[in-house]
Amino acid sequence: MKRRMIETSILRHFDQTRETILEINSFNYVNDEVLFQYDDEEVLHSIVFYSKNMSFAECNYKIYDKKLLVIIWAFEHWRLELKLTDISIKMFIDHQALTSLMKDKKLSRHQMHWVQKLADFNFRIMYWSDKQNIKIDALTHWADVVLRDSEDERVRYQWITILTSNRMKIADLEKNISESIYKQILETNEIDENCTLLREAIARDETQYEDIKLKNCWTQNKILYHDSQLWISFNELLQTNLIREMHNQSSVDHSDILRTVKVIKRNYYWSFMRKTIDWYIQNCYICQRSKTSRNKSNDLLQSLSISEQRWQDIAMNFIIDLPDSYDYNAILTVICKLLKERHYISCIIDDEDITAEKTAEMLIQWVYWTHDLSSFIVSDRDSQFISILWKFLCKQLSIFLWLFIVYHFQIND
């Protein structure tokens, strides 16, 4: 044991001809630094330890400035030793942003004053995680344990009450709905026909009534509940009044859909609640006027071109849901945009709606046999319907389509 204690060297004298390594760290109230050097056998030995408490003002620094301050302290404290060495000093720190300190970057005036002190030293800052900085990390955390329960000024400043109880009105934040609406909810819950049917289904131990799951529903004193929430009957006026009352109160203050749903779901429940609240907030006058729309702005309306010939541009539309007359139940209206001449074509629309092929046959029979082939068709049908319509028209009129890309020089000549 004596031989091992004598042979093992814990601290050594500084040697300016050897490579120097600095490990530094800053944690809460203290800055700690350790200086190392390698011996002839490439074994790393500790040369000296240095620890310094931060002042009250320095505790308020940002983490970047705290880590920079510990670098400045290290070079000021060991200035004579570190200035003599010609070998680049390796400095390990657990803040990666400081690795680019000496490169071109914008610094504050306070930081620039500190950096000027480092111009006389040959060093390089390298990043090391907390798990690798074992020795220095142990020092900083030990200092934090010592100061945790003390009456030190640096600890006391963290426990300041900014908003005292006499400056906050708890009643305003806990405002609930008015008594009249709550009384109306209870009365409607007790006498409403749908609520009565739900209570009867629960009494029969049914798990579902129509589209409503009754797994978490229960009754007490003839009042229907869902979990711990009061059930709201299928009354649109009552639901709207409840949403308005909750949406306008100061604790919610016309917030978004998610927060309004969260506030209402604390005490109330009804089917399709999210859909009803979404509809109300989208039509809320104050929300629409005060909140910026995040939707993409619509472009200006583009006017239709003016026709140069009769029946060159036509507009067509279907009049549906008419009573049956001679086995017909709809009318296809085709109007010339130039002269406002029109054709009314009786047709049949079944449950699957009319197809583009049937529409093309009616246009050929009643329009194109009487007039020329139209160049433009205006309709409220989707693009897929119009595409199939044109393809079928060209097929019936023996018009062959040759599709090509836009930038085809041989065709666009």
What does this structure look like?
This protein has 413 residues and is α/β, with parallel strands linked by helices. It folds into 3 domains: 2-147, Ribonuclease H-like superfamily/Ribonuclease H (Nucleotidyltransferase, domain 5, 2-Layer Sandwich); 179-288, Endonuclease III, domain 1 (Orthogonal Bundle), CATH 1.10.340.70; 313-396, Ribonuclease H-like superfamily/Ribonuclease H (Nucleotidyltransferase, domain 5, 2-Layer Sandwich). Helices cover 35% and strands 19% of the residues. A hairpin with a 2-residue loop joins strand 6 and strand 7 (212-213). Helix 14 packs across helix 15. The longest helix has 15 residues, at 63-77. The model is unreliable at 170-175 (pLDDT under 50).
Core attributes:
413 residues, alpha/beta, Nucleotidyltransferase, domain 5, Endonuclease III, domain 1, 5-stranded mixed sheet, 15 helices, 19% strand, elongated
